[in-house]
Structure formats: structure tokens, C-alpha cells
Specification:
heterodimer, A: 2 domains, five-stranded mixed beta sheet, 34% helix, B: Uridine Diphospho-n-acetylenolpyruvylglucosamine Reductase, domain 3, 2 domains, four-stranded antiparallel beta sheet, 12 helices, 11 strands
Chain lengths: 156, 328
């Protein structure tokens, strides 16, 4: 348990204990206090999925999460899903399939897709489409995103 | 969008949560998944200076076929094949709530108690201040029905209609102890629309209980919305029952998304018991439900369209429930 004005949690595997007033949203804490700007602010109301992070491995909308409530838990952002060198299999697949255009929604998709493949390593196309139904992309039309996730699942 | 400051409380038991809420009477909200409350707080809708977070109250979590904890995430119900098979109408509704990301945090209790919605309410503070505030937040008039002093904001939960058809009961904890009552009584149909729940100040929904007879019925939930993802219902129709070609043994129908409360229409379904569910009878039922509902112009689709779609969705829900057969 952190001191009263702080929150203590594991961020991408490392313990952190930033100061944090009760009204601070996790997205704001990540971007503005901890300077991890890979997590994007899209709608800020839970509609678009751009701000998705993993809390104890579960995809979570960081724009609708009070930062204090991740006390004692484990948070993984897009930065934490990449290996020290290069790209994760999902990231590499997104690049190879051209599944990104402006790129703003991409971190959210990669986090959601990573959680899906950990839970269900061989999802059907319908399961992929279902899992990403909370992530909006205004550029690609989704087809290449679905193909990229399918390919990452197949290890291609 | 940043939130205004508030004090955050983290009780670890139902009794502690209720005691806090009583001490903070009228100045607090309960916070579970936050997927409804926090967007509203970001829009400066009915802010309270204290939030009572329920995530550490273990009793509110977990589910079985008999009981669902109020703070159980919708995704955890959805991920349980036994639960889905036992309650096919609820399974439909679970898959239709918002998006998988919202369902990962959003809870059963949050969906049953979801704030009612309206064009003139679900807007930023600046937008609302430009037009003039409404009855439901900060103002004293209704922009939808200006001559009335009641609120017409629409009940927008998907799960309540489905659970209503199964005779579910809610367990509520309050300063004077616990009680169970039918889910339908959670909604205060005699209220002014602003007061839309029958909960006393500080009362907390602890769990939903399902009777043994709720299992294994035919069931379906059909949702009308503009986008097949995220959107709140413009109409939701739930049916459940037991019937075969010869006779209807049980039939229940509930509608949400068109009025301030989800409603069950026993007076229209009970005459169908004991006889076969013919196309003519289904058509009559569909038209009768259509005549009963009174949507107003406060959501994206026009009220007349939503009303006419009630009949279409009643027919579809019953047809699909018939195709799907009984589960369990």
C-alpha cells in the first residue's frame, strides 16, 4: 500500500510509486506524470479503445480508470509489450501487413490483440473481430488489422 | 478531460460501504467499473465530492447460476459457457453491451443502474450551459417535453430487460439491513424520471438472484442501435419462456431503451399461455406492445421509428427464440 498521496504498482514490470491525487485518471498519470505517451488519448470517454492498457493482464480502458485503483496491481502499456530490441510478434505483424496508417489507434489495437492471443492463441476470424470491437480505426477499414492479428496468431 | 477533485473511499465490506454512504448522505456516489459514472463526471454531470470505490468489497464479486455479484465484470459472465447456456437471452444481452473493453470493467450492477440518457443531458458542460441546463442536471426545465416537469431520459441498460424476463430478484443492503425484491421494483415507475430508482439514499445493490426455474428457458434479446458496437440501445426487446408447437407454458417479454424504465408486459403475454404460439398471436402481441410504449425524441433515432421497430423486434426475438430451442 502506498503512502496516502501516492499510488504504488508495477509498470511494465518495474515498481513505481508516483504521487497521485484521487481524481487522477490512469491515462493522465501514464502520459503526463510517467511520460509514457504510447498510450493514446482518443475519445477520453471509453468509446475508441486508443488508451487500452493491461491491468493484471486484462485489457482496460485507462481513460476510465482511476489511477489510485491500480494500487498493488500490474500495469502493462504498449511500451512494455515491446522487447528491448525490435518488435513483438503482434507489432511485427502489424508492420508487415500494413495494418496501420495514421497510427494513432495502433497501440490500443496491439494491446487488445496481445491480450486476445495470450488468452486464446488461435482465435477464429469472428473471435478476432469480436475482440477488437471496442477499438476504433478511422483509416484502415479493419481488414488489414484483422489479417495482421490472424497472421500473428499463426506465427507467420 | 480531467476530473474535479473528490475524496476517494475504499471500503472492504458491504456494511462499511453502506455506513460510509449514510455518513456522506447525498454527497457521494458508489463507483464500481466506472464505465458509466466516470464519463458522466468528465462531462460535469451531477458531480459528488465523495466516491466510494467498491473494488475491494469481495462479497460483490463472483457468480454462480443462482447469484451474480453486483460488481462482477460483464466480461466474466460472458466468459462462462455454463451461464450463457442456462440463460440464452442474458447471453445475447451481455454480448451487446457497449464493447468488449467496456465489458472488461463494466459490472452487472452498473448496467442495471446505468444512468438514463438524453440528447440534452449527455453533453459537455459548455454545450449544456449554451442551451440552458435541463432538469436532470443543473437546470429546471426539460428540453424534450418543455411543458412537463418530469425527466424523459431513456433507460439504456441491456441486461435489465433480459433479467426481468427471468423473474430475477435484487439483494439490496442499506442502513436498516438487507432485503430482496423483484428486479422490476428496483425501478421507480412512479418517480419523476430524475428519481428513477426505488433505492433509498445509501442503499447498495449487492447481488442479483435467479430462481431455479429461470434456467433452461428459450430466450433472446434483440437490440436496435445505429452502430453494432458501443452504442446504447435505441430499443431492446427481451423474451423468455417455455413453449412447443402445441402450447405456451411460460412467456415473458420486457422492453428497454424506449422509456425511462425497463418494462415487462405480463398483461400482454399471459393471454397467450396454454395455446400454440401462432404467427397471428405473435403479430397481435407485437402490435400490442407497440401501442403501449411511448418513446420521446431524445435519442438518435426518431421516436416513431423506434416505436414501430418495437413490433419488428418482438417478432424477431420470438422467431429466433423459437429457432434456438431450449437450453439446458
Amino acid at each position: 500500500m502506498a503512502s496516502p498521496d501516492r499510488v504504488s504498482f508495477r509498470l511494465n514490470g518495474q515498481p513505481v510509486e508516483p504521487s497521485c491525487p484521487p481524481e487522477r485518471i490512469l491515462l493522465d498519470l501514464l502520459r503526463e506524470e510517467l511520460r509514457l505517451t504510447g498510450t493514446k488519448r482518443g475519445c477520453d470517454l471509453g468509446t475508441c479503445g486508443c488508451c487500452t492498457v493491461l491491468v493484471d493482464g486484462r485489457p482496460t480502458l485507462s481513460c476510465l480508470t482511476l489511477a489510485r485503483l491500480v494500487d498493488g496491481r500490474s500495469v502493462d502499456t504498449i511500451e512494455g509489450l515491446s522487447p528491448a530490441q525490435g518488435l513483438s510478434p503482434v507489432q511485427r505483424s502489424f508492420v508487415e501487413h500494413g495494418a496501420t496508417q495514421c497510427g494513432f489507434c495502433t497501440p490500443g489495437f496491439v494491446v487488445t490483440a496481445t491480450a486476445l492471443l495470450r488468452r486464446n492463441p488461435h482465435p477464429s476470424r469472428a473471435e478476432i473481430e469480436g475482440a477488437i470491437a471496442g477499438n476504433l480505426c478511422r483509416c484502415t477499414g479493419y481488414r488489414k488489422i484483422v489479417e495482421a492479428i490472424e497472421a500473428a496468431a499463426g506465427g507467420r | 478531460m480531467h476530473l474535479d477533485p473528490f475524496e476517494l473511499h475504499r471500503p472492504t465490506s458491504v456494511e462499511e460501504a453502506v455506513r460510509l454512504a449514510r455518513e456522506l448522505a447525498g454527497r457521494c456516489d458508489y463507483l464500481a467499473g466506472g464505465t458509466d459514472l466516470l464519463p458522466n463526471y468528465k462531462m460535469h454531470l451531477n458531480l459528488r465530492p465523495h466516491l466510494i470505490a467498491l473494488g475491494d468489497v469481495r462479497e460483490l464479486r463472483g457468480h454462480s447460476l443462482d447469484r451474480v455479484g453486483a460488481a462482477e465484470p460483464l466480461a466474466d459472465l460472458e466468459a462462462d459457457p455454463e451461464f450463457r447456456a442456462a440463460y440464452p437471452g442474458v447471453a445475447d444481452a451481455l454480448g451487446e453491451v457497449a464493447t468488449p473493453l467496456v465489458r472488461a470493467s463494466g459490472t452487472l450492477g452498473g448496467n442495471l443502474l446505468v444512468e438514463t440518457r438524453c440528447f440534452f443531458f449527455n453533453q459537455s458542460y459548455f454545450w449544456r450551459s449554451s442551451l440552458g441546463f435541463c432538469l436532470k442536471a443543473d437546470g429546471d426545465k426539460c428540453h424534450v417535453v418543455p411543458q412537463k416537469e418530469r425527466c424523459y431520459a431513456t433507460f439504456s441498460g441491456d441486461l435489465a430487460p433480459a433479467f426481468l424476463t427471468l423473474d430475477a430478484e435484487v439483494e439490496v443492503a442499506g442502513p436498516s439491513g438487507r432485503r430482496r425484491r423483484p428486479l422490476s421494483e428496483l425501478y421507480d415507475a412512479a418517480g419523476d424520471g430524475i428519481r428513477r430508482l426505488s433505492l433509498a439514499p445509501g442503499e447498495l445493490v449487492v447481488a442479483l438472484h435467479l430462481p431455479r426455474a429461470a434456467r433452461g428457458q428459450r430466450g433472446r434479446y434483440k437490440k436496435l442501435r445505429v452502430r453494432p458496437s458501443f452504442d446504447f440501445p435505441e430499443l431492446g426487446v427481451a423474451v423468455a419462456g417455455r413453449w412447443d408447437e402445441r402450447s405456451v407454458d411460460r412467456l415473458s417479454l420486457a422492453v428497454g431503451g424506449v422509456e425511462t424504465y425497463p418494462r415487462r408486459f405480463d398483461e400482454l403475454t399471459s393471454p397467450l399461455l396454454g395455446a400454440p404460439l401462432t404467427t397471428d398471436r405473435v403479430d397481435e402481441l407485437a402490435e400490442a406492445v407497440l401501442r403501449k410504449v411511448r418513446p420521446v425524441h431524445n435519442t438518435f433515432l426518431l421516436p416513431d421509428y423506434r416505436r414501430r421497430m418495437v413490433a419488428v423486434y418482438v417478432r424477431r426475438a420470438l422467431a429466433e427464440a423459437r429457432e434456438g430451442g431450449a437450453a439446458g
